[in-house]
User: What shape does this take?
Amino acid sequence: MNEYLELAFRSVVTIVFAASAVGKARAPQEFAAAVREMRVAPERLTGRIVLAVPLLEAALAAAVWVPAAAPWAYALAAGLTAVFTAVLVSVIRRRIDTACSCFGVSATPVGTAHVVRNCLLFAVAAAGCATALAGGPGSAYSAHFPEALLSIFAGACTSILIIATDVLADVFSSPSEATSRSSS
Assistant: This one.
């Protein structure tokens, strides 16, 4: 059973981190602007951050599939997500009105929904680490193809919800918040 949970966790980490890496790589100027607007790193480091973060995310998306590296990849994914969450909380507390550009171009201001999204992703990465450490390599996937497919499907559905945070935040925001965002 653990191997199917881990397969779902691997799917989530892979899909979310790969989508994030691709979104940032496709819109590096927007990601750089978000990093500058968040004011969490010196301006001189912005270029390095814009280069390093998508590369690290892409590496982690792949590394969770390497059995010997999976526990470390999950741990690093959880750590990176914790850093991202701390940045978002800092932005909210300082009342900085900016989009996170986590998955590319976005007009949705950083808010509680983004913190909740990151907490969910952190929990998935931490649980993936725990199951990877407890279960060893999952070699039984082919023997139970329907269960493996269901695990991947559950991971993909969870990933879509995580990636769609901006859309969901807009849908469930109050009409006054949506009006003020569209008029600015």
